[in-house]
Here is the input.
Amino acid sequence: FNILTYQQHSDASNQVKGFNQSFLILPYTLNRDLIFIDNEWHESCSGRKMPVHNPATGDLLCEVEEADTEDVDKAVQSARAAFQLGSPWRCMDASDRGLLLNRLADLVERDRLRLATLEALDSGKIFLMAYFVDLMATVKTLRYYGGWADKIQGKTIPVDGEYFTYTRHEPIGVCGQIIPWNFPVMMFAWKIAPALCCGNTVIIKPAEQTPLTALHMACLIKEAGFPPGVVNVLPGYGPTAGSAIAHHMDIDKIAFTGSTAVGKLIQKAAGDSNLKRVTLELGGKNPNIVFADCDLEYAVEQAHSGLFFNQGQCCLAGSRVFVEDSIYEEFVCRSAEKARNKVLGNPLVPGVDQGPQIDQKQFDKILELIESGKKEGATLECGPTVFSNVTDDMRIAREEIFGPVQQIMRFRSVNEVIQRANATHYGLAAGVFTNDIDKALTVSSALQAGMVWVNCYNAMSTQCPFGGFKMSGNGRELGEYALQEYTEVKAVTIKISQKNS
Amino acid sequence: MLRVVLSRTFPRISGISNCQYSAAAIPVPSAQPEVHYNKLFINNEWQDAVSKRSFPTINPATGEVICQVAEADKADVDKAVKAAREAFRFGSPWRRMDASDRGLLLSRLADAIERDTAYLAELETLDNGKPYAVSYRVDVPMVVKCLRYCAGWADKWEGKTIPIDGDFFCYTRHEPIGVCGQIIPWNFPLLMQAWKLGPALATGNTVVMKVAEQTPLTALYVASLIKEVGFPPGVVNILPGMGPSAGSAIASHMDVDKVAFTGSTEVGHLIQQASGSSNLKKVTLELGGKSPNIIMSDANMAEAVEQSHFALFFNQGQCCCAGSRTYVQDTIYDEFMERSVERAKSRVVGDPFNMKTEQGPQVDEQQFKKILGYISSGKREGAKLMCGGGVAADRGYFIQPTIFGDVQDGMTIAREEIFGPVMQILKFKTLEEVVERANDTKYGLAAAVFTKDIDKAHYISSGIRAGTVWINCYNVFGAQAPFGGYKYSGNGRELGEYGLDNYTEVKTVTIKVPQKNS
Here is the structure.
């Protein structure tokens, strides 16, 4: 999903008709603000509700029922029943699971404008980005996994002895999925698509900051025809609902995308409870390495969007830009210029290219890190923020900021920059800008990162696996590789009277 | 009544469950659907043949001409190949398209076909003679499923990166082969078109397809949908024409990279020779069969009788995989024969547009005469005629459901492919014996065994030299499962992931690197 340039945004915005200004009228009336279990809408067991805010204004959008431990129990029961041997979901042709996912994709396409608007309101991301990037990725992901459903194949295996042996690639069972607030609807699709494609049932907790598009997806899931209990959507908080899912004795697998700190809690919870399978997509402090022999203007632009996309709220953000000595000054100058020209404002208005951060907590954290950058001696070039003369030991060079703050460091040699790039507990992504084939191949092999981009950044596509080395997580999402994370392999061995090749 | 007829006609085909029959009634068909397209389809345009010639296509239920169709010959094949080659040019829209978008186009084609199910089913029945209830409930839905399945593969057909020795980075690209010639038969016109187009287009090839002269109409309508959903010009070209002229021109063309043929073994030989005589184009063949259907004494008798009936008589007996040698274990032979005869006698033969009809006419006069010839040989060579054996109506090409008993392996009807509603029932004693006799044929397309015993099932399925073995079922197909023949029944597999191999050229790329690390 290529990040559109600003010019493309404004061209594209002219094509988006029917932009409904009435969405700007508050408080927003949500049709669905309940908990979705068994294809039905439930109030919370506790009676509690959660407020949902518009980060551009701070205003309350609406309230949503808040799921907690008891609601999680209800959802697990429903998902477990839907997974019983002999259930409609278990007996369904694999190709029909695929058909349902494709139907869901059709419905998302139908409701694209509404979903993009909800997403922009709830998360603060630029509306045109939501429409052209997030929603497109959502549709493509659903269709991609719709295509895999009846292509998940076991094997027949030539074992020693008089046996006929084969493997079944079975679904794991009830999968708990906890998703973040930075790409709410896209993360929703990344999680449910492979899980459903492989035949699992799902309990998904959207982030408390951004539950709205998840709830609309629940409506579409029911409309598409998924049997009750196959997908359950529980808005709630991490320490309560999220923790209940991670600790649950009857959930077979948990998939979490979020901070590394919480990732550790999830892993511990799994070990503490029933050893549920765990996959994690966590943070990053991703190196973006620019060699002197690159196309400079292009590298500046890619490094810029590589950091500032989505208000800097990307696990993939290229937040350590290593620039080769001989082009350093020029690079910093051009990067600062680019950052100065950013238009901040209301994400629903075309022409704005940076919206608000998601909430007060993030806002405060980012400002605090900016202060530390100044204190520790980096050069503040401008705001939206570009720091130059950053050294590896500074907090802004080590900690994930998750905001519009770009760090530009100087390097001299290939081996040096590889070593410095890898000197982090994280390992999610990396970029390399060079025209030299040897450098490109050498550096990309050497970097400890799940995704390495050469002469591009943030170039993602549903067919390509995504995930982290080291403390950026384990397991892969997207592509064929994701299927492994949602499959349990069973080997069946049958005694026969005479084996022949 | 409708439900009983339908469940008899196609009891358990590819997972269509019985509940679907009562869920939605089949719409009443028009017995005279309008023909919209009867020309050649090249470069997304409709064209007359260069020679201006045309040929008639016949309604086999009546023997009457439906309409004239433009007749492609070598000059038209040349035009089509040029168009397909241009569409395959490096840098062309088709070559540069995202793989996922190729998949999307195939999905859209499936949607359009689904939209026009009723019309396509009418046209298929008019041109081929198969009962409308079957065209509507089996042929067209299977086409839709096949295209959707292949659409899903488009962006999932992955090469590898490979850890070779030395300081190298090595990977493979799964590239399309190029311009693919495809020659399809008349027994499942729409379905055969889908089986060919699906994998070829999913993997990025361009196609020159010659459709059977007996049944060109539905393929040409699908061509209009191919244009409607947005395939670039030249990606698919469809030519109605004759085998010895247009078909031969494709098989010997110096600029066609691959030919896929489904049809008789006899013509399969010619295709393979033509490839060797021209440019060594890659060849895949789906040919004839004389498939053994083995009934063990512990089989569920009612199921075995019904499935064996279906195995032979489905599609007027015009299936490459028809179970045309039914081997029945001696202890149950008499009962099996009696029940099979009763079932065959009750088979409803008639107007294919009538919802009660189970069996329509044979596809043309040539087949009709050939089958009657085989029936004569059966009588002459001493097989026992148990029922049928003659013509079933005054006009059209209808033949009575026929069963021969006391058939010996050496008889013509036990060795040659009849491709008609003529069932051969043979007797056997032991497991080892029947496997040997079942394999004593130049063919190897399919086979089946009916038994409750897990060990017997495994022994037979391992021992029989056939590309598809069914256990306690017959004619179960899925787009996901590969299909093809051993020996003279062909080479290569269609459908499933395996089907993609035949439309792929693997390119290995090896790049020198300063230092290789694992």
Residues 1-29 of chain A have pLDDT under 50 and may be disordered. The interface with chain B takes residues 93-95, 98-99, 102, 140, 143-144, 146-151, 153, 164, 437-438, 441-442, 445-446, 462-463, 480, 494, 496-500 of chain A (CB under 8 Å). The longest strand of chain A covers residues 163-171. Residues 127-148 of chain A form the longest helix (22 residues).
